[in-house]
Design brief:
CATH topology of the largest domain in chain B: Rossmann fold
Number of helices of chain A: 17
Protein name (chain A): Light-independent protochlorophyllide reductase subunit N
CATH class of the largest domain in chain A: Alpha Beta
Domain Nitrogenase/oxidoreductase component (chain A): 39-422
Shape of chain A: globular
Strand order of the largest sheet of chain B: 11-10-9-12-13
Number of domains of chain B: 4
Largest interface: A-B, 62 and 55 residues
Oligomer: heterodimer
CATH superfamily of the largest domain in chain A: Nitrogenase molybdenum iron protein domain
Strand content of chain B: 5-15%
Shape of chain B: globular
Strand content of chain A: 15-25%
Number of strands of chain B: 15
Family (chain A): Belongs to the BchN/ChlN family.
Binding site for [4Fe-4S] cluster (chain A): 32, 57, 118
CATH class of the largest domain in chain B: Alpha Beta
Largest sheet of chain A: 7 strands, mixed
CATH topology of the largest domain in chain A: Rossmann fold
Helix content of chain A: 40-55%
Keywords (chain A): 4Fe-4S, ATP-binding, Bacteriochlorophyll biosynthesis, Chlorophyll biosynthesis, Iron, Iron-sulfur, Metal-binding, Nucleotide-binding, Oxidoreductase, Photosynthesis
Number of helices of chain B: 23
Structural class of chain A: alpha/beta
């Protein structure tokens, strides 16, 4: 199927790119949106994420990322039991009881997310109402919000999207009279956030806010003069909610690699009237360092063929980076969901004959992968060892959401994530 | 509704996956949303399996719910059969599909597949992983072995006795090596293993279970139900003794020899375990009366309690299980050691009890390993749930005489060695053998910081409080004098919490307002050790 893609700004209004897109339905191998709690609960340091779901949800959370290293995690599961289903127990009363017990145990919590799951969606447990009821009970100490991370509605990183969308109505409001501000949307590692803050400050943009904020009492204010820029490519709902408050999106590529980071910073700089000469001066050292770092690793990747299974929605920006800055050939670039508008700048930078796939039929995709026998396969944890055993070299995609990869000073680290499995395979003699 | 952070067991369909993944030529079609596919990584990452589990998920989405999810199931099942050509299919629902009531079992009977499709009813909101594994294995055995011919009456005389080994699955705690150890042990008795199941068997092998003379049940949590059915159907007796530890292995040999009518003598005489001598050798004296807390699945917990008591000379101060289905066995065992059994799947309760009991060693699961790390207590893992570390590269069974050797090494390892313990007692302000020192073979001084950072309030290490002035008395709580507090610091950390607690209790009982050095030693004399 051919889909015209229209880049929204820099590449010119008339230019469209036609991609061959494989669209498939069938068995998947992806996480559900609950999984994003694993980084969100570290990012928002006074929030607790309470999944209202089944034992499967609880088991997923503890299995997905070996998160048991956290002594007392700020997430948990309210397990729906048989008596809740049979109507013997009023599920709402039960939930109130569980929340009261939890908040008693954890007086440090200021924001509680009730996170919907597949079972809670199917039995139509109204968590929105529950959240507003519980908020009334526990305010001002604790604010209670809700969003869905269910696997019937969200894939992996989309859990962050629905979480941030639930935060938007809570943001302090600004009016026409307030000065323009820049809002960066999407979880970034703290160190990356600090780097970006410094770069913007050097350009003279001092009012930079981040969503999610590190603490629930530092939520960024939003209004008609807010210019927001996405730091992650999976934030469809959150973007829509922000626009509902009058904020304007700055179209940009995503800040992966030198080109992506420069394009991303430039979109903000242009919107805030930063002098191009100043922009070049501020970004030059980072660009130079990133190129120097990349030059060693790119050699390892150059000409190697890569196949990306759908997972985090980071696949298209990653493919753009790996192709243009590391010289890799793109065999197939899978994504669970293709947001054409948010990815317009990215798609415009991909080779026209790139094979994209949206959705998944796992077995057919594995057939294509085996047939192509790429040099590197990017895939989830369930597939990596079996593919290695078949002789392929793999990179687990989950590492890409747990590692600081955005910005100039992480560009070489990002490339290295793909080079290391290749170097390792070349090194081993057993 | 129940609040949980960590769970000991997954949902019952994960138990079914453990059975299916352990087997060959079997495929499981699971009506489930996409997120449930996380379960694949349990097998490919934790167990490092080199193949995907034989499971196809229908991965329905919200938009399918208004339409025909049943059709999606039918289509997926047919496609999975065509692609994988298994000898049999398992079909069932995960927790979400259970709610939409598509009845995969009923649907599968209408697909016209040329192989058996075995429906699984695994209630996700009341049952858990081990039950799911047990039920799945039972349904497989019932469906596939039921039609077998009875054994020919005269055939048995012309061959060695033979048995099935029942219970091992994928993701089991040391199942891989236990099978090897027990197969060798049975061979030394002149007994052949006919089929090992579920691990390593095909549906065709399951159909042959009735041809064996008897069954060896290694893991009752998984195989007992099936073994009972086989006993009723084929008059196959099954074993009750779990061969963990030297004593139990000897009893197991006797039990098996009795059933198979072979001479146990040579196998008993050739018993190759170093545990008895290692445990009797004088350097093991320091193990005497070590306070040990035990938690795990029922089988491993009960076995560990016996080994700890009879073969290590430890004192069991706590015993518990998360296996509610086998709570009775654990309650019985707890009576032997005069402890209150802890039957719970709430790890916070387990943590509270470990903190309360102040054991010197914990034998538990990966969950207890974390609890112990936080509380600064040594821990060895004896049971599932498992972690990647529980699949060691080396041969490391738990069962049989080889397994007893492994137990000796593994359980002694976390402890401070005997002589070192004395050095700590003697030279309390020595730069190396000071009170905060960790066992030297475990390396480093990291233990102290970790405990300070992570220990819950009620067992905060003294490092936090010593520099401060004695705390003001609260409602008649006795206060530590500076001297006594300093003396307490000289007691090695692994018994200090208990000393503090006992002394405070003693002072309170005696109505003392201040704890002096004398109070500390009076309390020591009062409580003994």
């Amino acid at each position: 199927m051919t889909v015209p893609v229209q880049p929204s700004s820099s590449a010119g209004p008339e230019q469209t790119v036609d991609f061959n897109i494989i669209r498939e339905r069938g068995p998947h191998a992806v996480f559900c949106g609950l999984t994003s709690i694993i980084w969100l609960h570290r990012k928002i340091q006074d929030a607790f994420f309470l999944v209202v779901g089944s034992r499967t949800c609880a088991h997923l959370m503890q299995s997905a990322a070996g998160v048991m290293i956290f002594a007392e995690p700020r997430f948990g599961t309210a397990l729906i039991e048989e008596r809740d289903l049979a109507g013997l127990a009023d599920a709402n009363e039960e939930l109130d009881r569980v929340v009261a017990r939890l908040l008693e145990r954890r007086p440090d919590i200021r924001m509680l997310f009730l996170v919907g799951s597949c079972p809670s969606e199917v039995i139509k447990l109204d968590l929105e109402r529950a959240a507003s009821r519980l908020s009334q009970q526990h305010m001002p100490q604790v604010r209670v919000l809700n969003y869905t991370g269910s696997g019937i509605e969200t894939t992996f990183t989309q859990g962050e999207d629905t979480c941030l969308a639930a935060l938007v109505p809570e943001l302090p409001r600004e009016t026409d009279a307030d000065p323009a501000s820049l809002l960066v949307v999407g979880s970034l590692a703290d160190i990356v956030e600090d780097q970006f803050t410094r770069l913007f400050a050097e350009m003279g943009i001092h009012d930079v806010r981040y969503l999610p904020a590190r603490r629930s009492d530092q939520l960024p204010a939003v209004g008609p003069n807010t210019r927001y820029i996405l730091a992650q490519p999976f934030l469809n709902e959150a973007a829509r909610a922000l626009e509902g408050l009058g904020a304007t999106r700055l179209s940009a590529p995503f800040p992966l690699g030198v080109e992506g980071t420069t394009g991303w910073l430039r979109a903000a700089a242009d919107a805030f009237g930063v002098d191009p000469a100043l922009f070049d001066k501020v970004t030059a050292p980072g660009i130079e360092r990133a190129r120097r770092g990349l030059s060693h690793i790119a050699e390892e990747l150059k000409g190697k063929r890569i196949f990306l299974f759908p997972d985090s929605q980071l696949e298209i920006p990653l493919a753009r980076f790996l192709h243009r800055e590391a010289g890799m050939e793109l065999v197939e670039v899978g994504t669970p969901y293709l947001h054409r508008q948010h990815l317009a700048e990215e798609l415009a930078m991909l080779p026209k004959d790139t094979c994209l796939s949206e959705g998944q039929h796992l077995d057919k995709q594995l057939d294509r992968c085996r047939e192509a026998h790429p040099d590197v396969v990017v895939c989830g944890l369930g597939l990596a060892n079996p593919l290695e055993a078949e002789g392929m070299t793999t990179k687990w995609s989950i590492e890409l959401v747990f590692t600081p990869i955005q910005g100039y000073d992480q560009a070489a680290d990002l490339a290295e994530l793909f080079a290391r499995p290749l170097m390792r395979r070349a090194k081993l003699r057993v | 509704m129940q609040l949980t952070v960590w769970t000991y067991e997954g949902p019952p369909h994960v138990g079914a996956m453990r059975v299916a993944t352990g087997m060959e030529r079997l495929h499981y079609v699971l009506h489930a949303p996409q997120g449930d596919t996380y379960a694949d990584l349990l097998f490919t990452m934790i167990e490092r399996r080199n193949q995907r589990p034989p499971v196809t998920y229908t991965t329905f989405q919200a938009r399918d719910l208004g339409q025909d999810t049943a059709e999606l199931f039918r289509h997926t099942a047919i496609e999975a059969y065509e692609r994988f050509k298994p000898q049999a299919l398992l079909v069932g629902s995960s927790c979400t599909a259970e709610l939409i009531q598509d009845d995969p079992g009923g649907l599968s009977q209408t697909l016209g597949l040329p192989v058996p499709a075995i429906p699984l009813e695994l209630p996700s909101y009341s049952r858990k992983e081990n039950w799911g594994a047990s039920e799945t294995f039972y349904q497989l055995v019932r469906s596939l072995a039921g039609n077998a011919e009875a054994r020919p009456a005269d055939e048995a005389a012309s061959r060695r006795p033979r048995c099935n080994l029942l219970g091992p699955t994928a993701l089991g705690f040391r199942h891989r090596d236990d099978i090897q150890e027990i197969t060798q042990l049975l061979d030394s008795l002149g007994i052949d293993v006919h089929v090992t199941a579920p691990m390593g068997s095909t549906p065709a092998d399951i159909a042959r279970l009735g041809e064996a003379d008897f069954n060896v049940v290694l893991y009752p949590e998984i195989a007992q139900t099936a073994a009972k059915w086989l006993e009723r159907t084929f008059k196959q007796p099954y074993t009750r003794v779990i061969p963990i530890g030297v004593g139990a292995t000897r009893e197991f040999i006797q039990e098996v020899a009795g059933i198979a009518q072979v001479d146990p003598g040579p196998a008993l005489e050739n018993a190759q375990s170093r545990l008895p001598w290692y445990s009797r050798s004088v350097d093991s004296n320091y193990l005497t009366g070590k306070r040990v807390f035990i938690f795990g699945d029922a089988t491993h917990a009960v076995a560990a309690a016996r080994v700890a008591t009879e073969e290590f000379g430890f004192k069991v101060v706590g015993l518990g299980t998360y296996s509610r289905e086998f709570a009775r066995e654990v309650r019985e065992a707890a009576k032997l050691y005069d402890v209150t059994p802890l039957i719970t799947d709430d790890y916070l309760e387990v943590e509270a009890q470990v903190a309360e009991l102040q054991p010197e060693l914990v034998l538990g699961t990966q969950m207890e390993r974390h609890i112990s790390k936080r509380l600064g207590v040594g821990c060895a893992v004896i049971s599932a749930p498992v972690h990647v570390q529980d699949f060691p590269a080396r041969y490391a069974p738990q069962m049989g005489f080889g397994g007893a050797n492994v137990l000796f090494d593994t359980w002694v390892h976390p402890l401070m060695m005997g002589l070192e313990e004395h050095l700590l007692g003697m030279f309390r302000e020595d730069f190396e053998f000071h009170a905060e020192a960790a066992p030297s073979h475990l390396g480093g001084t990291g233990t102290t910081e970790r405990r300070v950072a992570a220990a819950p309030a009620e067992v905060q290490p003294e490092a936090v409080t010593t520099d401060a002035a004695p705390e003001p008395a609260q409602d008649g709580e006795p206060v530590w004098s500076a001297d006594a507090e300093k003396e307490l610091r000289k007691i090695p950390f692994f018994v200090r919490g208990k000393a503090r607690r006992n002394t405070e209790r003693f002072a309170k009982e005696k109505g003392l307002h201040e704890i002096s050095i004398d109070t500390l030693y009076d309390a020591k004399a009062h409580f003994g050790r």
